[in-house]
Fold Diguanylate cyclase (GGDEF) domain-containing protein.
Amino acid sequence: LTLERELRDALTNGQFEVFYQPLVDLGSNDIVGLEALARWRHPERGLVSPAVFIPIAEETGLIVPLGEWVLRQACRDAARWPGHVRVAVNVSPHQLRQRTFATMVVSALAENAVDPRRLELEITESVLLEETDANLKTLHALRASGVRIAMDDFGTGYSSISYLRSFPFDKIKIDRSFVREIGEKPEAAAIIRAIIGLGQSLNMTTLVEGIETEGQRKAVLAEGADEMQGYLFSHPCPARDIDALFDGAH
Ligand code: G
Ligand code: G
Ligand code: MN
Ligand code: NA
């Protein structure tokens, strides 16, 4: 309960920060995007994990202002980074349900002069559990404005595949639980291969999450995935580290 109260104040007190984890092209090893991941710098508790505060924010509805803050910060940061690099932002069901969500996103991009095609919104199956006309309309409106829509944690829910019928995603992010068993169980590679094939036949970019070893990178490259994300390339890091990365590049 105290955590909930502190969470409310944390936004106004500027205790949140956005970390970024690179999305990497498997063929070239180039950074093609950066996923924005919220962090809470608590004055006493230190860095609080989103695994702790995102569920509380969802329950209390605080995810709406928090999610908007993350999106706006991601747009401000993206404005300093090269134009070919995308930013990916997670969207919770609560946010999508706001009538003003699509216009809020478009205005955040415009205010920072960021091309909508540089923004990727990541939604999980829980968003589509409410497959309402209003939700689908919002997603279509965003997509019409140029924003890309990715299905996050693909394969963890019960109906990931059926949602591919209801909405034309631009990307699927294959959940890291599949990659963990590569090299141990032949079934794991077979399932990843099948999901990548599904994505390809639907014209969607495929990204594999949770790549921690060179062996895993080689395996998913061989299966034809487009992109990867994981500790092998980089942990999530502060925006200034990303700034340094691009300032140092020629
Ligand atoms: O950053 P970390 O790797 O610990 O993320 C833990 C979880 O919190 C992930 O499921 C991630 O999607 C979620 N998360 C992190 N930042 C945000 C955010 O800004 N909005 C939403 N909705 N979820 C987030
Ligand atoms: O749920 P979502 O995919 O949006 O959140 C990304 C989460 O995955 C974050 O908590 C991030 O810290 C975590 N993550 C990113 N790369 C790796 C990895 O290589 N291994 C593991 N175990 N977790 C990862
Ligand atoms: Mn995500
Ligand atoms: Na994910």
User: Anything to note?
Assistant: The radius of gyration is 18 Å. The longest strand covers residues 31-42. The beta strands are 16-25, 31-42, 46-48, 86-91, 119-123, 148-154, 171-174, 205-209, 227-229, 237-238. The pocket of sodium ion (ligand 4) is lined by residues 152-153, 173, 209 (CB under 6 Å).
